[in-house]
Specification:
CATH architecture of the largest domain: 3-Layer(bba) Sandwich
Strand content: 15-25%
Distance between the termini: 25 Å
CATH class of the largest domain: Alpha Beta
CATH superfamily of the largest domain: FAD/NAD(P)-binding domain
Number of helices: 11
Structural class: alpha/beta
Number of strands: 21
Largest sheet: 8 strands, mixed
Helix content: 25-40%
Radius of gyration: 23 Å
């Protein structure tokens, strides 16, 4: 694979640094007689997949996909995409650490089943996590396909400043190459796969978004799509540190080796919470990460008006819905239950935070809102569907522009209720299927 865009035109251009981008580019490049350009930001070429549970969205979320986006996202089609994702990916199991084993034993003590290595069939319970490097995503999905497909894929390290749209059709991109700005054209389609923050911003820079905001920014309006950049859902995270008794032979706990999924409300039909044992750089501490996986809070991302001194405005609005705070408080209770088990007592576990003042309900609410961060699992800003707020249709085509799609986690209309890695890669698999199948008109054009 080349590492720079050396041609003036390709069949497909994939723009992005999301987990979906390399999977999508690889599947497109498996087709005969195509040239695919994958443009990635320089600092993401060797990125690593988030270490956490790789689990399929629960049935309730999949039903919502079908209701929102149409039968193309109904089962069993989406199940097939999830199965392909699981079957084709080269997971890297970490050596099992004593503290992670203690975490799983503690989970058993509070009634959670141990489910083994996490996967797309993971229900509620505790599991070992598996690691997957994004650089592995290019090769495995080509198994059984046409030989020599990698020669049809060019990877370019650079930055796409805007999409080139002519007469309502996306015909290419403007990107940086060796310090210069150049235009590269797409004979068939351009696919934006830059993630929940950068995908909507690229659309907005190209004149696709809320018309009033684009005009305020000084950008010509190509398509007035108010939903671009809205519906941002991100998972809040609270880190609770626990000290354990030092042991002279103990190894430092690295990464996030094990997790627990459960429901904050027995009336829910699937898990909505995740706890992960997370290791710092010293052996005598373990961090338990409490995570709300299905937040009701919503944020937005949009271009900043001229003169603001900022490129864009990002409002995550974590924990602005009281129900999210309630579930986080529930998570803190489960963390404490774990810490008080015989398993953790055997290693001298003691809580380092929250501070004593936060033992009251009011104090805990203030504490959670004050220290909550983000888990880096944003989505929803280019939501798929047929409502006025949707950005792409059931085939992930951007409303109002031909030959342009968004295929990444930004199309998720609602949180996945679990870590979105499996869903994001499945979106790439399913999105490639829909693109290559196409409508009759698209098949005629592709021919």
């Amino acid at each position: 694979m080349e590492r720079a865009a050396t041609q003036a035109e390709y069949d497909y251009i994939v723009v992005g640094s999301s987990l979906a981008a390399p999977v999508l580019a690889a599947r497109l490049a498996q087709q005969a007689d195509v040239r695919v350009l994958l443009v990635e930001a320089a600092d993401t070429l060797d990125r690593q997949l988030d270490e956490s549970v790789f689990a399929a969205p629960p049935p309730s979320v999949l039903r919502q996909w079908a209701l929102t986006a149409g039968p193309e996202w109904a089962r069993p089609a989406i199940d097939d995409a999830l199965e392909i994702s699981e079957r084709s990916l080269p997971f890297h199991d970490r050596p099992r650490h004593e503290l992670a084993t203690t975490f799983l034993h503690a989970a058993q003590e509070i009634g959670a089943p141990i489910i083994g290595a996490s996967g797309t069939d993971l229900p509620e319970g505790a599991a070992w996590n598996r690691e997957l490097r994004s650089t592995d995503l290019l090769a495995p999905l080509s198994a059984g396909a046409h030989s020599g497909w990698s020669g049809r894929l060019t990877r370019h390290s650079g930055y796409v400043t805007e999409l080139v749209i002519e007469s309502g059709r996306c015909v290419g991109v403007r990107l940086t190459a060796s310090g210069d700005l150049r235009t590269v054209r797409a004979a068939r389609e351009v696919i934006v796969s830059a993630g929940a923050i950068q995908s909507p911003l690229l659309l907005q820079r190209s004149g696709i978004g809320a018309g009033s905001e684009l005009r305020a920014h000084g950008t010509d309006v190509v398509v007035d799509l108010p939903g671009v950049g809205r519906n941002l859902h991100d998972a809040p995270v609270v880190l609770l540190p626990f000290a354990v008794e030092p042991h002279p032979t103990a190894r430092p706990l690295r990464g996030a080796p094990a997790s627990l999924l459960w429901r904050s409300d027995a009336g829910l039909d699937s898990s909505d919470m995740q706890l992960t044992v997370l290791g710092p750089r010293v052996a005598e501490h373990a961090f338990v990460l409490a995570l709300t996986l299905a937040p009701l809070s919503r944020g937005e991302v949009r271009l900043a008006p001229p003169g603001w001194g900022e490129i864009h405005i990002l409002k995550r609005r974590l924990l602005t819905d009281d129900a999210d705070v309630d579930r986080m408080l529930d998570a803190l209770g489960v963390v404490r239950d774990l810490a008080e088990t015989a398993a953790f007592a055997s290693v001298g576990c003691r809580e380092l935070a929250p501070t004593p003042f936060a033992r009251s309900l009011t104090g805990l609410r203030e504490y959670v809102r004050r220290i909550a961060g983000r888990a880096g699992r944003a989505g929803g800003t280019c939501a798929m569907g047929i409502t006025p707020s949707s950005v792409v249709d059931s085939h992930l085509r951007v409303h109002g522009v031909s030959a342009l799609r968004v295929i990444d986690e930004s199309v998720l209309p609602a949180p996945t209720a679990v870590n979105p890695n499996a869903a994001t890669i499945a979106i790439a698999v399913r999105g490639a299927e829909l693109l290559l199948a196409g409508t009759p008109a698209e098949r005629s054009h592709a021919a």
